[in-house]
Structures are given as structure tokens and as C-alpha cells.
Model the fold of this input.
Amino acid sequence: MGARLLEIISRRAFLAGGGLAVVLSFGRTVRAQVARLFRYRPLSQPVIIAIDALSVPWRVRPFTAEAVTLPSAATPNHAIRISGIIVRTATGERPEQFSAVCVRCPHELCDVDYVDDPKRLPQEVVGEIGRPVNEPVYLCPCHNSSFKVDGERLSGPAPRGLYRFRVTAVSAASVEIAEVEEDVLIFV
Done:
């Protein structure tokens, strides 16, 4: 009877431990999703761009935003200017139909170029991407890191995608950019 009791207790302990592991892992997933929602910080003042300047899909419009570095940055609470590019990716007037990114490559902070015709990409860049490219891309002229229009990294030595701005409002007259990815407030 003693061995049977130990076997039952061991099974219960195993099941309780497994259940606890599932709950903890689910909690981490929820925390990660919530953290993603809060990875943007407000700009010092919103950038307003006339919607007429963005009437043609895939045509870029440069802008400059003002922000303040985070307390954890090398120079904390310091006013900075961030150069960006916004592009309309689809017709309509919703924030998700625009993409705004910082023009600095996160690898060595070179300014990226916008390549509107993917056929003009150097063959070695297309080879590094590893698949046909059918939409415009950003290309870093220093070390050939390439990025999708939304800033996602395609190839090259850049450790991550381009820093992103959040388009917060679109009206019949203008597009408002009021937030920037917080990592740019530490590293640029």
C-alpha cells in the first residue's frame, strides 16, 4: 500500500507541475503580446503630412520628427530629431494603409535608400534575400541590408528591421504620425 500511495502522489505532483508550467508559459505569452502593444512612445509633437502628398501608392515622402531619448539611453532625456519616410501602401484612409520608418539602418546608422523598382536591386542583394522581390524596398548602401516597406528586415548584416513610426490618424486632409518605436529613443 505504501508504494501505491507514493505512485499516486508522484503522478499528482507531476500533473500539478505540468499544469503550473503551462500556466506560466501562457502568462509569458500574454505579457509578450501586451509588451508589443506598448513598444511605441509618443513624439514630442505629432508630424502632420497633407494627404495630397501621399496620394500615389509607393511614392515616398520624407519627414522629420522630434522626440526625447529614454532615461536608459546613453544621453537620457535628450531632445533628438529623427528622419523618417512615409509611404502609402494601399488606397484608402486608414492608418494601416501607410508605413512610416526611420531612414537610419540599425546596423551602423547609414541612411537607407528607397528602391521603388525592385528590378534595379543589385543581383547580390536579390540573392541574399533568396526570393523574387516584387515591391519596393529600402536598401542600406553601406552593407546592403535590405528591408520591406514596413521596415521588416529582408537580408544583410542589420540585426533587426528599421525602426518604425506609428501612423495614429488619417483624415481626408492629413496623415498624423504621433509615435515612434521606443528602441530608436535608446540607440539613434
User: Anything to note?
Assistant: The first strand starts at residue 40 and ends at 50. The mean pLDDT is 87. Strands lie at 40-50, 60-68, 79-88, 98-102, 113-115, 137-139, 146-148, 153-155, 164-170, 174-181.
